[in-house]
Amino acid sequence: MTTKKEEIHTAAAKLFGEKGFAASSVRDIAHAVGLGAASLYNHMGSKDELLTTICFRCANEFLEGMQLIELTQSDPVEKIKELISLQIRIALHDESSLTVFNDEWRHLQEPFLSSFLELRRQYETAYLRIIREGIEKGRLQNSDPYLMYQLILSSLRWLHMPTVKKTKLNEQQLTEQISSILINGIVL
Prior knowledge:
Elements: H1 3-19, H2 26-32, H3 37-40, H4 47-72, H5 76-93, H6 95-103, H7 112-136, H8 145-156, H9 171-184
Helix pairs in contact: 1-2, 1-4, 1-6, 4-5, 4-6, 4-7, 5-7, 5-9, 7-8
């Protein structure tokens, strides 16, 4: 990707995250990168193409992270800690894209929508496999795996929002404390 394309993708992700995909115009994106609306098309195909690229880039980042964690960790609890760390890292370093990934994917057009949902399904399946492994090995409590999965992901959804800065924790501290709370609970 050229530097101008990267700049356009970053600006689009930020606008889609702030205003939503539907409310963000090509003119808004062009203005954000200092181009005219017509000139923007020299660097991109369409607004839909930008959304597709942002969503799939983020989905692939999660899947590649999952695959690496599955290859390098054997303990299911450590895998979950690493997955929490992955989510935090992406949220803190690419918050606009994560917002689009979490919320604006619904605007994807077919066949991209089906392909995107398949990538999300693959991630969920792998995550559930890790949780089930943890339950079977006696490393996690015997609770509903899907409930655990949703609780973990839901507890991390706020990390891409500006309010995360209220914690005053750096990335490592945030990762350690969130992992500890999610894995060990809040009761002493």
